[in-house]
Amino acid sequence: MTFERIKPQKGSEIVMTHMKEQIQAGSYLPGSKLPTVDQLAVSFEVGRSTIREAMSALKAMGWVDIRHGGGTFVSKTLPSGDGLDNGGDLFYQTESFQEVLEVRKFIEAGCASLAAERRTEDDLQLLAQAIQEMEAAIDNESLSEQADIRFHLSIAKASHNSLFLSMMESLTDRLQESMKESRRLWFFAERASVKLLIQEHKDIYEAIKDQDAKLAEERVMQHILKVDRVVQKLGAKA
């Protein structure tokens, strides 16, 4: 008889599962504030880093909303599935999402390269404005997502290639959904904050501003590849 190898759970996975079950059971209602990191660390008898990792995973799956400086809240609209628990469940259409990422990689990298060569002061102003809007909306995920999309569309506009811009605009609906899921996965994979995500956008902006076409292309490609790698990993587990 052969037995399937059982992978031991990490502390953060145990905390994540327990907290999700508590939310599902109604112990924490949608929109309600969760105990602090310190309080949860004491309750579970684990370190604060373990709690933060668990909360990052729950945020990536859509169960909680982490407000910088304001605490962690149960999402007002809870996901219908189990998120990342069983591998690829976060994406009910993983292949479709993968296709959008593949298109984004090549279109946006090309846009960034041309934008670095052709950008005008007006183009730079639009890019900078989108970043400022992301910073101003750091505690408002919806507005931050919209500013994120404007940043990427502004890069296409700065390429001064009408076909590139048309392709990006034609993908607006798919792009919006892709951005939303990309951001969630980026936070989960990097265990990172909104500030670090904004810094990546600033790095792309600086490369375009400095008219470094190769660097701009590389930074956009790496920005999207981070999410692509996580999607492939989840797909392999599914």
TrEMBL record:
Keywords: DNA-binding, Transcription, Transcription regulation. It comes from the Bacteria. It comes from Paenibacillus alba. Pfam families: FCD (PF07729), GntR (PF00392). Residues 9-77 form the HTH gntR-type domain. InterPro entries: GntR_C, TF_FadR/GntR_C, Tscrpt_reg_HTH_GntR, WH-like_DNA-bd_sf, WH_DNA-bd_sf. SUPFAM superfamilies: GntR ligand-binding domain-like, Winged helix' DNA-binding domain. The keyword Transcription applies. SMART domains: FCD (SM00895), HTH_GNTR (SM00345). This is FadR/GntR family transcriptional regulator.
